[in-house]
Amino acid sequence: MTPFELAEPVTLKDAIGLLATGDPDVRPIAGGTAVMLMMRTGLFRPAKLVSLRRIEAGHRAIEVAADGTIRIGAMATLSSLEHAPEIAQAAPVISQTLRTLSNVRVRNVATLGGHLAHADPHMDLPPVLITLAASLTIAGPSGMRRLDVADLFGGYLETTLAPGELITEVTVPAQGARRAAYMKCTTRSADDWPALGLAVSLQTEGDRITSARIAIGAATETPRRLAAAEAALAGARADDAALRAAGDAAAAEAEIEADAQGSAAYKRELLRVYVGRTVRKALGRAPGPGG
Description:
This protein has helices spanning 12-19, 35-40, 78-82, 85-90, 92-98, 104-109, 112-117, 125-131, 227-233, 240-253, 264-282, and strands at 5-7, 26-29, 48-51, 62-64, 70-73, 135-140, 143-148, 153-155, 158-159, 166-172, 179-186, 194-205, 208-217, 224-225. With 291 residues, it is α+β, with helices and mostly antiparallel strands. It has three domains: 5-50, Uridine Diphospho-n-acetylenolpyruvylglucosamine Reductase, domain 2 (2-Layer Sandwich); 60-172, Uridine Diphospho-n-acetylenolpyruvylglucosamine Reductase, domain 3 (2-Layer Sandwich); 179-282, CO dehydrogenase flavoprotein, C-terminal domain (Enolase-like, domain 1, 2-Layer Sandwich). The strands form four sheets. A five-stranded antiparallel beta sheet has the order 4-5-10-6-7. The chain has a four-stranded antiparallel beta sheet with strand order 11-12-13-14, with helices on both faces. A hairpin with a 2-residue loop joins strand 6 (135-140) and strand 7 (143-148). Helix 9 (227-233) packs antiparallel against helix 10 (240-253). The radius of gyration is 19 Å and the shape is globular. The termini are far apart.
């Protein structure tokens, strides 16, 4: 590993000051689960790391307001989210997703902010947070700004964060009667990188889906919504024909990427099937014919 300098600021303001130099060799580190692995393999060689572990404790807070709005500090660990009873109550899909996200050793140190800022499309939470309409609070040299999670990802391992900017909080609006689910397909163990991750959030009225939010991960360059599949479900009964149509729409619109987890053709067929499976899971139904 290439030698590097380590700075440990105790305030967010100081951390931003250290990062706002414009030097690309100065980078932040939170839990370090991704950064240290990339450094060990020589893919990432920063001259200076700015550790965020000692900044104000409030950036680790997990709160649910009386109206159901969730606010999560970016330094909250994935393990703390997994076991937070208020998260299990307000947005159970988050707690359920975390149970097979990597392994417990990683979840104990990895942070929510780092998970998002790493911008690896195989990460599980981005598609979930996109379907929950989550947004970010971002702090930087020019002050604070808000950004939808869907707009964070600029490309493979790339975000739209400006130099010196840090994610400080994730806000999930109250979900009300919406029902959500996340499913992934892994080619090896359950906690391995997925070949496909798919999240859905549904609003229903009687036996009809009045609105749907669907987001894909792992199979595309960045996590993103699938507008055509959403449109196919809007106003439809969640029967086999409607779910097949939504799966076909998703497979047609998604720009699938091949990788070590599977070919583009394989992932496209997975997507075609997993749209129906994930919708049924959100609705509390058993898998239908063909999954």
